[in-house]
Design a protein that fits this description.
Chain lengths: ~260, ~140
């Protein structure tokens, strides 16, 4: 894993701009900083402006763990594709998977709600096609995380467990994940290359694809991540977007989609 | 035998076309093809590029070295596997590629290919015309 703003990383980023790549981002922790209450998460006005300007040059996709309707309220303009529920919701091919995921989610919610009713600091977010169990407000986070993992492991049908920053996500196993979503969107938009920026465990589904023409960038250095490059922190997303805009300006090209 | 003779002559004309392109427009057609594939697929490995372009690795290696020497491409180590090289185009390479494609588009305009002509002979005529036009439109 290398730092994106070293010479090599910048050359890579510029080459992807020249290639008319698809730009794809996770939302929380990537476009928007992590905040104590997930409902308050917003990208900064500066990030919104850079993203809007980038959209004049490139196709943009946001793939988030949030439900799609929730994600749409947080985006400053209509991006080319907004995908929710970790790659499942909003993907043109996933209609069948949605019904199965909704049924599984309902069963998990009915079991978890009473089991966690008296646990303070834990909030179950029902996103219709997946569950997010937040424990950021819990006092003993380690103990609560273990309890949540035990509960999640006992669920039938067994969910795919994705760990995030103080959140345990329960997703239908076998459903399209972020990596599948990105590959499908590349095919649909006719793009042969893509940039993906994410910060979390579930973004590893994209990082691990290992496609040659996929520039993977993680927010925060992590030697266990499969991402090729990293940003030191979320605030550096603005620098990255600005560098892309400068590159497009230098070559004087507008988007082709 | 007539077709074989035409094929050999076509091969010679293609060679001339390549030489005209390199002499007058900085890039040979093979170099342009390689540059174009690297532009479209940043981060591609040399082995994938060989498959994608149909160029034999023994021809591709010196071509890549020449492109790197001209600073039109960079060969970077893949962070996840330092034994692998990722090929990317530079800004200089991007500009050369775009300029050359503009020339090619101009050269290809209003080409006169006669219906019913022998396909190999037609291709040979096309190659000769292209070489002539590339010479006429020196950079």
């Amino acid at each position: 894993m290398k730092y994106l703003f070293d010479d090599e990383g910048l050359r890579m980023l510029e080459a992807f701009c020249y290639s008319d790549a698809l730009f794809s981002f996770d939302f929380d922790g990537t476009l928007a900083p992590i905040v104590p209450n997930p409902d308050d998460a917003r990208a900064s006005p500066k990030t919104d402006d850079y993203l809007r300007a980038l959209h004049e040059n490139a196709s943009i996709v946001v793939i988030s763990g949030r439900s799609r309707p929730d994600l749409l309220t947080r985006l400053p303009f209509k991006v080319d594709f907004a995908i929710g529920n970790h790659g499942l919701e909003g993907l043109p091919s996933s209609t069948g998977s949605l019904e199965i995921a909704a049924d599984m989610t309902r069963q998990w919610y009915e079991k978890l709600k009473p089991a966690l009713a008296k646990t303070t600091g834990v909030v179950i977010e029902n996103k219709s096609f997946s569950l997010a169990v937040h424990y950021r407000q819990a006092t003993d986070k380690r103990k609560i995380k273990l309890k949540l993992l035990e509960l999640a492991s006992s669920l039938v049908p067994a969910p795919r467990i994705l760990l995030g920053k103080y959140v345990v996500n329960l997703v239908a196993s076998g459903a399209p994940h972020k990596g599948v979503a990105l590959l499908e969107l590349m095919l649909r938009t006719g793009k042969r290359s893509a940039v993906y920026v994410g910060d979390d465990e579930n973004d590893e589904d994209v990082f691990r694809l290992g496609e040659e023409s996929l520039l993977t960038i993680r927010v925060g250095e992590d030697e266990n991540s499969a991402a090729l490059y990293y940003l030191k922190n979320q605030a550096e997303i603005d620098r990255m977007l600005r560098h892309c805009l400068d590159t497009y300006k230098k070559i004087g090209r507008k988007r082709s989609l | 035998m007539h077709h074989i003779e035409l094929l050999v002559r076509l091969s010679v004309e293609l060679h001339n076309l390549n030489a005209q392109a390199q002499r007058h427009h900085e890039l040979s057609l093979v170099q342009w093809l390689v540059l174009r594939k690297i532009l479209a697929s940043p981060g591609i490995s040399a082995s994938s590029l060989a498959l994608l372009s149909g160029i034999h690795p023994s021809t591709l290696t010196p071509t890549l070295q020449r492109l790197e020497g001209s600073e039109w491409i960079f060969m970077l180590e893949r962070p996840s596997d330092l034994r692998q090289k990722m090929l990317i185009i530079s800004q200089k390479g991007y500009r050369v590629c775009v300029k050359f494609e503009k020339t090619l588009r101009g050269v290809l305009k209003n080409l006169d290919v006669k219906d019913g002509e022998d396909p190999i002979d037609a291709t040979r005529h096309l190659t000769v015309t292209l070489a002539q036009r590339l010479q006429d439109t020196k950079a």
